[in-house]
Amino acid sequence: MKFIHLSDLHLGIRVNEFSMLDDQKYILDRIISVIDLEKPDAVIIAGDIYDKSVPPAEAVVMFDGFISRLAEKRIHTFIISGNHDSAERISFGSEIMNATGIHISPVFGGKISPVILNDEYGTVNVYMLPFVRPSAVRAYFPDEDTSSFSSAVETAVRNMNIDTHKRNIIITHQFVTGALRSDSEDFSVGGTDNVNADIFIDFDYTALGHIHRPQNVGSEKIRYCGTPLKYSFSEANHTKSVTIAELKEKGTLEIRTSELIPLRDMREIKGAYDELMKKSFYEGTGLTEDYVHITLTDESDIPDAVSKLRTVYRNLMKLDYDNSRTKVQNVISGTDSVNQTDPIELFAGFFKEQNNLPMNDEQSAFAEEVIREIFESEVSIL
pTM here? Predict the structure, then answer.
């Protein structure tokens, strides 16, 4: 059985105040082309369909068109909500659409029954676990350990009672410990959103969403397919793709990717203003149409630099300087070290400064629990 694995479409996102709707429409067309070529048995969309819980109308229309095309092709399509989505909005009409082969995860309700597919090797059970916080799982399993994201997800998975003699797939949207993040992703304080990879060991394939870089975690059976487009300059060197996973007899899994070429790439360039404005530098490179982050190395600021640069680099998203002045400022500010410090450590340092002694074990445990609860709330960090 062949699956096309997608995730993190983030339809409606704006990157550095640039709308990505045209780019997203283009890449969805390219994904349809891959589907037509590969002829999969099913398509998986592992969460973060939209970039906001209340997406713009254009994004909703775009996704409606995309899944309608999949329904016309009679391809089973599995859709779960991610942390950027509203689970209630995503699941609207799911029972009606189920008859057309569009399977949408409902709001987590404690019990998850699989969708059963069949091929020449037997049955494949597909479980859909949308993004869940510990509080959502705790509501249905009050007597079990749901104190962390990992224990909550483990509880939800264990109560699926999967038959390990059969082939099983789980689709979920969490941060599995060990995955490499990008700047465009949400994050939680102190790694409180981490989920252990061992939770998914009994599944023949774990189709993950949430992390934007395509990668396996722990084994090839546990995989993030990544975003179909670049959504930050930290992803400038990523190669975007869809993942193609094929399950044959029990224990046999083949994974490969199909590269996605965007309408406009996201690139970083650096140099002196006069150098970057020479036709010999940019002509024939695609830089005039791509989204670019330019770092100027001139010692003096260029007056009206953004407007001047955009006469050549039409989609200039970000402008920085790298010279002797900015190097001194970066050393003085020390912002990098602050941003990378665990907030629990920051609070511990603040407590010690205010009270002239460190927190004891009980105070440390209380502070960590309070901070964890704050970052489990519904408030999005980005």
Answer: 0.83
